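Side project, low priority. Logging it here so it doesn't get lost.
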Amino acid sequence: MRTVKFGIIGCGLMGREFASAVARWCHLSEMDVKPEIVAVCDANADILTWYTENFATIRQVTSNYEELLLNDEVEAVYIAVPHNLHQTFYCAAIEAGKHLLGEKPFGIDKAANDAIMACIAAHPDVFVRCSSESPFFPAMQRIGAMIETDAFGRIIEVNSGFLHCSDMDVSKPINWKRKLAFNGEYGCMGDLGMHACHMPFRAGWLPRDVRAVLSDIVPERPDGKGGMAPCETWDNATLCCTAEDGDGHPFPMTIKTQRIAPGHKNTWYLEILGTQGSARWSSKQINTLEVMQYTGGEQAWQVIDMGHEMAFKSITGGIFEAGFSDSILQMWAAFLYELEHGNPPSRFSGCVTPEEAALSHRLFTAALTSQRCNTTEQVVV
């Protein structure tokens, strides 16, 4: 089994999730490649203690990402830093010849993403992907198989979203995601949007126009120093798009991203309505898939209780249920598998491509114009 030595730059929440997935790698029973964490980098020295206490393989600990990128032992990096640092850090990693899995949105704005895309094009030997766990739940894999077999017929409507409750508490102190300088004007779209876009984009349902309704619900928050600070980014976004199926037929598609979503904690959902079949899934009932096949006569939704039916086989029996940590492990398996073999094993078992991330920037940039001008804007696909 080949070992790919990794460095982690930005060792917060998602960095720990990746490291935990590495610790569970033996759970994947048929992989012929594995990651090993050999270097970590974060400006907060205290956060690095958890890594060194739990991973004996780590041989470099630094607060300087450039030092890590100079480490010849590091073959690939995972980077999870605020959006304003994406262009600098991602381009530096690519130019250093390090394979990269980076967090969305792959640049604070379209100009930053354009620069990252140009850097990728100039270094074709470097493998680059964007993070999104949403397709790796068993129900989403089943929906992907339905798309592959044309089980939906002509698409009537698609609705996808990511609903978060993290900012429901108006007394929550402000963080970087509410500040333009760090998160960018996209706001919730940049932070959450790729999760909602991943499946539709991979299906080839590309938005050709958008009418956006963006909401600034909480205008200020405690600054942590006894005062109040303005919230400069959008809390919620609803994007009403016209998309096309593979035959060029148009249909409505909505994409929602919300940080203030009553009744939700951390909810992904996808609904596809077609002339021959329909499907809907929400992570609120993470192992429940609803499908409906229409052949004439009565219509009835069928409820399927999904088991551990993953893109990459694991030791867990198929009758057991899957959770978020399983989807993280699957996403990393997808990255390593494609790095090793050149292609994912199936259409919906691959990570977000740079081209898909770039399309999200074109969509979100058009959405900002739509909100500002109260217009429907074209999206260049």
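Brief comment: The mean pLDDT is 96.
Revisit when time allows.
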